[in-house]
Design a protein that fits this description.
The chain has a single domain, classed as T-fold, CATH 3.10.520.10. Helices cover 26% and strands 24% of the residues. It contains 8 helices and 19 strands. Strand 6 and strand 7 form a beta hairpin. Helix 7 packs antiparallel against helix 8. The longest helix is centred in the middle third of the chain and has 22 residues. The chain is globular.
Length: 404
C-alpha cells in the first residue's frame, strides 16, 4: 500500500480520459501521427454535464481504418464520480514483416472506440494483424453491450431493474456477471463502511431530478431515500446464485459497472492472445501487459493549478494494474449559491459541497472504480486511513488550498 500526500492541488493529477456523444455507434481503428509507443496522451476539453449512471447504448460496429482518432468538443463522459476528457494516442505501428519470413509477425498497435454505459470505451492493443485486433475488439464491444443491458437502471427491462421490481422480495436467480458485480459491490460497501453503497438507487434518481429542476428536494423525500440506502438490505446466496432484496430496495451500479466492464474487456483480450492492452472507460482504466520494449503504459495525469483548473501533467507508468479517478473538476451544479458535486453523500442525500478529488490505483478496475468514489465521500483523513488497511492500493487526494 502506498499513500501520496500532496499539499495542494498543484500536486494532484486527474486522469484525462473521455467520451463521445451518447448514441454514436462508430468503433474507429486509428493510426495517429507518430508518437512514443505506449503512451496514453490526454486531450483536454470541457465536457457537458455527464449522465449519472450506466445507460443504454446502441451496438457499436467496426469502421474502416482512419488516419487519426480525435475527440470532438461536447463529448459525453462517464457515470457518477467521473470528470474526464481525453483520447488515447497510438504511436507508430510496427513495420510489416518481409514476405516469406518464418519469424513471427511484429506486433502493431491498434485503437478502437465505441459508446457504452454513457461514456466511451477505448481499447488499445498490440496484435500481429488488423483482422486479429478487430476480431478481439468486436468481442469486447459485444460484451460491453451485454453488460450494459444487464446493469443499467435507465431501462426498466434490464436484469437489474427486474430484480428491483416491486413484489420481488424473494430469492431471484441472476446471471453470473450480475451476481459477481453485486458480490464485489457488497464487499466494497463493507470495506468502506457504506461510503460506497449499491443500494443508493432512490438517492440517485432523486438527485438526477434535482439537477434537472435546479432546486433541492423536500427533506421528507431525502430522508425516505436515505433510509432505503443500506447495503445490508442485499442478501446473496452463492450456492443458488440468487439475490434477495428487502422491499423497496433500488440498486444503482453506476459507481462500479464501468470498472467491471473494463476488467472484462481486458480479460477477453488476454483470452484471445492480446495481453499487451489497455482499456479505458471514462475515468476508469484497466491496464494489461506493458507495450513491447516498455516497462508499462504511460498514463498522463493532468494536475490542477492554483485556480483549481486542469493545468500541468504528471505521469505514472502501469502494467497489470488499474486506475480510477473521481472528483468534481467538471461535474457540479450550483443551487441557491451552493456548489454541489455530482458525487452523493449518502448521509445527506445531496451532492458533496467540499471540493475534493481522488485517484486510486488497484489490482483491478472494479476495485479502483468503487474506491475512488467512496474515498471522495469519506474525505482525505478517513480515506487515507482506509487505504492503509487495504492490500496493494495506492491513493492520491487533492483539496483546494485554503483562501488567504
Amino acid at each position: 500500500m502506498n499513500l501520496w500526500h500532496p499539499v495542494s492541488l498543484l500536486a494532484f493529477g486527474v486522469f484525462c480520459l473521455g467520451g463521445i456523444q451518447a448514441g454514436e455507434t462508430a468503433v474507429e481503428i486509428t493510426k495517429p501521427p507518430l508518437q512514443e509507443k505506449g503512451t496514453i496522451a490526454p486531450h483536454l476539453t470541457s465536457p457537458p454535464e455527464e449522465r449519472d449512471d450506466v445507460s443504454r447504448s446502441s451496438k457499436p460496429h467496426i469502421a474502416s481504418a482512419s488516419d487519426s482518432l480525435a475527440l470532438r468538443s461536447g463529448e459525453r463522459a462517464g457515470v457518477r464520480g467521473r470528470s474526464i476528457a481525453s483520447h488515447i494516442n497510438v504511436g507508430q505501428t510496427a513495420p510489416k514483416s518481409p514476405l516469406h519470413s518464418s519469424a513471427p509477425a511484429p506486433l502493431q498497435r491498434f485503437d478502437f472506440s465505441g459508446p457504452g454505459m454513457a461514456t466511451t470505451f477505448r481499447i488499445s492493443c498490440y496484435a500481429e494483424s488488423q483482422p486479429q485486433a478487430e476480431a478481439a475488439a468486436e468481442v469486447c464491444f459485444k460484451r460491453i453491450a451485454e453488460l450494459n443491458h444487464s446493469f443499467t437502471d435507465y431501462d426498466p427491462t434490464s436484469e437489474l431493474m427486474r430484480l428491483c421490481a416491486p413484489g420481488t422480495s424473494y430469492p431471484v436467480q441472476v446471471s453470473p456477471p450480475l451476481f459477481e458485480v453485486l458480490q464485489r459491490a457488497v464487499t466494497l460497501a463493507q470495506q468502506t463502511a457504506g461510503a460506497f453503497d449499491p443500494t443508493c438507487g432512490h438517492l440517485s434518481q432523486l438527485w438526477r431530478r434535482t439537477k434537472r429542476q435546479g432546486k433541492l428536494p423536500p427533506q421528507t423525500r431525502l430522508q425516505s431515500a436515505i433510509t432505503a440506502t443500506d447495503w445490508h438490505r442485499i442478501q446473496l446466496d452463492p450456492t443458488t446464485r440468487s439475490v434477495t432484496l428487502q422491499t423497496g430496495t433500488l440498486l444503482d451500479l453506476g459507481g462500479i459497472a464501468k470498472g467491471y466492464a473494463a476488467d472484462e474487456c481486458l480479460r477477453l483480450l488476454k483470452q484471445q492472445g492480446l495481453s499487451q492492452a489497455v482499456v479505458q472507460a471514462g475515468g476508469d482504466t484497466a491496464v494489461g501487459d506493458a507495450p513491447p520494449g516498455k516497462p508499462g503504459w504511460e498514463i498522463k495525469l493532468r494536475t490542477f493549478n492554483r485556480a483549481g483548473d486542469a493545468d500541468e501533467l504528471t505521469t505514472v507508468v502501469l502494467a497489470n494494474r488499474a486506475v480510477s479517478t473521481s472528483g468534481d473538476l467538471y461535474q457540479f451544479i450550483e443551487i441557491e449559491g451552493t456548489r454541489y458535486s455530482h458525487i452523493l453523500s449518502l448521509k445527506t442525500g445531496l451532492g458533496l459541497t467540499t471540493r475534493i478529488a481522488c485517484s486510486v490505483i488497484a489490482p483491478d478496475c472494479t476495485t479502483s472504480d468503487a474506491l475512488a468514489t467512496a474515498m471522495c465521500v469519506m474525505g482525505k483523513a478517513k480515506g487515507s486511513a482506509l487505504a492503509q488497511t487495504l492490500p496493494d492500493i495506492e491513493v492520491r487526494f487533492a483539496e483546494p488550498e485554503p483562501e488567504e
